[in-house]
């Protein structure tokens, strides 16, 4: 006789997905990104760390103690827990996230970071429980999706955090498309989104300044165009092989946020085009392996879950990099696993743990179906 309520959720089957072998290539690429991130952070944060705290390692140690080490723990936990459990917890977790977004209080974890994970858990649950015919329906698929996305996006905008909202919106549409949405609905949503962006710019003039800066940063290099201009100086001065590790000039109080939002510019300055290409290639290889796990997932929920997590990382990485290269306006979001930030690292590493658990069950699934 199955137990009910929470007892039914937290029973022995919670670790069902821990029996197979994880994808070692995926884990190896991820650990390589983590190690690279800590190395880059040690250089990018050295000057600010010394200026603010009297030593050059404050931010590295803080990232290690409050981000990386607890992140490895939550990654291990996420990799051991059967990912199907998140189907049962998706809605309660989303409600908790919405409450955190409304009442920030004294929470140290950033609710907008948590929202990326809990929202994709809910979307994967919802999409996988509905057939493609249902999702293609305007009234029962597309419209509820837009309403839900609008509510969450509105709460994040109130933070305000337009960069995170952009990542969540793009991630959600990638998941919706892969779940079977109609292309005409996605096109309709795209043009509707442009209207929303125009409205947000009208409500907050600083967003128009960011757009103007993106188009013509040289018009005010000492004002609103300063960040973009200094980022371009850092990227351009790196040449092919860079100035050398630790020899960035822009981190010495020229480039804003050198170890958070602007860390890719420091990579480009110190390691040159070669280092920038290697960084992007490493992210792409990690993403490719993740999407391979999604393709081999044993069910639709697992497939959409991994697609959501990997599209989150890839989109956020290229929004960050694109802003440093003046391909898109500045958004103020970090480079995943490389920029400084304990909250972002913790949540992201837990999400990676969930992907690893899907890979564990994919291996076992392939063995069972090949017999």
Radius of gyration: 21 Å
> How many domain units?
1
The chain-level mean pLDDT equals 86
Largest sheet: none
Oligomer: single chain
Strand proportion: under 5%
The global form is globular
Structure characterization notes:
The protein has 371 residues and is mainly alpha-helical. It has one domain. The protein contains 15 helices and no strands. Helix 4 runs parallel beside helix 15.
Please sum up the structure shown.
With 371 residues, the protein is an all-alpha fold.
Which secondary structure elements does this structure contain, and how are they paired or packed?
Blueprint: H1 5-9, H2 24-44, H3 46-53, H4 58-80, H5 85-102, H6 111-129, H7 132-136, H8 138-157, H9 162-179, H10 183-203, H11 205-215, H12 226-237, H13 263-295, H14 300-324, H15 342-370
Helix pairs in contact: 2-4, 2-13, 4-15, 5-6, 6-9, 6-14, 8-9, 9-14, 10-11, 12-13, 13-14, 14-15
């Amino acid at each position: 006789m199955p137990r009910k309520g929470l007892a039914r959720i937290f029973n022995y089957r919670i670790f069902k997905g821990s029996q197979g072998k994880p994808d070692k290539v995926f884990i190896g690429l991820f650990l390589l990104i983590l190690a690279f991130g800590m190395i880059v952070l040690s250089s990018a944060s050295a000057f600010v760390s010394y200026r603010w705290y009297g030593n050059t390692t404050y931010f590295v140690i803080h990232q290690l103690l409050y981000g990386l080490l607890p992140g490895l723990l939550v990654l291990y936990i996420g990799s051991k827990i059967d990912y199907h459990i998140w189907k049962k917890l998706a809605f309660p977790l989303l409600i908790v996230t919405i409450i955190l977004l409304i009442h920030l209080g004294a929470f140290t974890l950033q609710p907008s970071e948590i929202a990326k994970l809990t929202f994709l858990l809910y979307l994967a649950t919802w999409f996988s429980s509905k057939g493609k015919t249902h999702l293609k329906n305007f009234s029962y698929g597309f419209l509820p999706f837009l309403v839900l996305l609008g509510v969450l996006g509105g709460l994040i905008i109130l933070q305000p955090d337009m960069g995170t909202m952009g990542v969540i919106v793009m991630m959600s549409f990638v998941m919706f498309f892969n779940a079977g949405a109609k292309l005409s609905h996605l096109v309709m949503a795209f043009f509707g989104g442009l209207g929303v962006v125009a409205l947000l710019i009208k409500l907050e003039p600083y967003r128009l300044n960011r757009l103007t800066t993106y188009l013509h940063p040289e018009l005010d290099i000492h004002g609103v165009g300063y960040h973009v201009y200094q980022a371009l100086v850092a990227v351009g001065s790196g040449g092919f092989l860079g100035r050398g590790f630790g020899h960035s000039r822009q981190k010495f109080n020229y480039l804003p946020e050198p170890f958070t939002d602007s860390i890719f510019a420091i990579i480009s300055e110190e390691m040159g085009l070669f280092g920038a290409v290697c960084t992007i290639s490493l992210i792409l290889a990690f993403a490719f392996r993740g999407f391979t796990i999604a393709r081999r997932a044993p069910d639709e929920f697992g497939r959409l879950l991994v697609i959501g997590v990997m599209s989150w990382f890839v989109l956020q990485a290229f929004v960050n990099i694109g802003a440093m290269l003046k391909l898109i306006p500045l958004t103020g979001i970090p480079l995943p696993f490389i920029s400084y930030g304990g909250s972002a690292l913790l949540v992201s590493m837990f999400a990676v743990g969930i992907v690893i658990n899907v890979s564990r069950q994919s291996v076992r699934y392939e063995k069972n179906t090949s017999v």
